[in-house]
Amino acid sequence: MLVTLKRAFQGDRPPGKERVTSSTKIKTILQQLKAEHTLLCVNVPGCKDSANTAILGTEDKRGLFYLDELNTDRAHQALLRTRKLRITGRLHGMELQFATHMLKTDTDGGLALYEMAIPKAITRLQRRENFRLRLNPGLLVPVTIPNLGGESIHGEAFDLSAGGVGAYLHTRNIPSRGQLLAGSSLVMPRTRPFKAKLEVRFARQDAAHHMLRIGARFVGLDAKQERQIAQFLAEQQRKRRRHGPR
Fold it and tell me: Which of 9, 53, 112, 163 qualifies as a cystine partner to 131, CB 3.0-4.6 A?
């Protein structure tokens, strides 16, 4: 059954890749990333550390957009030196990749603010390894991390796939990329608590929600756990096709 569900979600086509060069489409994508408060992964030439950031705004007429301060000092200092970076993020199930350069840096309330040139092109890649479900408001999936910085953390998932989870957590602690969170649990409706080890892929304080936003990968799931997630995702998809968003 698990194989059948995976095929239904993934389809038979390979991942689709598209290079967007229309300036209008590129500006629209940047505006959507800002509106969704999408967490972006940043790589700066000459710096081994990846960093996270988010788009704070766009100025189409000036051909620039604003990035929040990078969350690691090494990446921040490298950006000041090289003035170049590569950004990766996800929007509506698509992975986005683009390169850009810094026009100017400033400060706002003691935090760095970067003016970045609107990129000439954005690559969009549809990855089909795992179907990812954005959870509707009202569909509560509590998440518990038993030990993060010495405290037990609670929150809610905002998206879920067979490969991982995105969640908002009530904490000011920020785990590092690659950190393993053992004994974590999710509670999907009408099921027993789902326990798993999570590997942090990104983590950032979300100013809009006043919570920690993380994306994490499941590590070492067994067949029963994979089935549990697949069945939950299939049920939600059936409900949405039958009744529409709730």
Answer: 9
Q: What is the pLDDT of residue 9?
A: 39
67, 93, 97: which is closest to 80 by C-alpha?
67
pLDDT at residue number 42: 93
- pTM assigned to the model: 0.55
Residue 151 and residue 126 in contact, taking contact as beta carbons nearer than 8 Å? no
**Position 230 pLDDT exceeds 70:** yes
Residue range 132-243, CATH number: 2.40.10.220
| Residues 194-201, mean pLDDT to the nearest whole number | 91
Which sequence spans correspond to the domains of the chain?
12-126, 132-243
With helix as H, strand as E and coil as C, how does the chain read?
CHHHHHHHHHCCCCCEEEEECCHHHHHHHHHHHHHCCCCEEEECCCCCCCEEECEEEEECCCCEEEEECCCCHHHHHHHHHHCEEEEEEEECCEEEEEEEEEEEEEEECCEEEEEEECCCCEEEEECCCCCEEECCCCCCCEEEEEEECCEEEEEEEEEEECCEEEEEECCCCCCCCCCEEEEEEECCCCCCCEEEEEEEEEEEEECCCCEEEEEEEEECCCHHHHHHHHHHHHHHHHHHHHHCCC
Query: Which pLDDT belongs to residue 242?
Result: 67
Fold exhibited by the domain 12-126 = Pnp Oxidase; Chain A (2.30.110)
Domains 12-126 and 132-243 share a fold: no
Q: Which residues contact 7 (CB under 8 A, 6 or more apart)?
A: none
Sign of the alpha-carbon torsion through 78, 79, 80, 83: positive
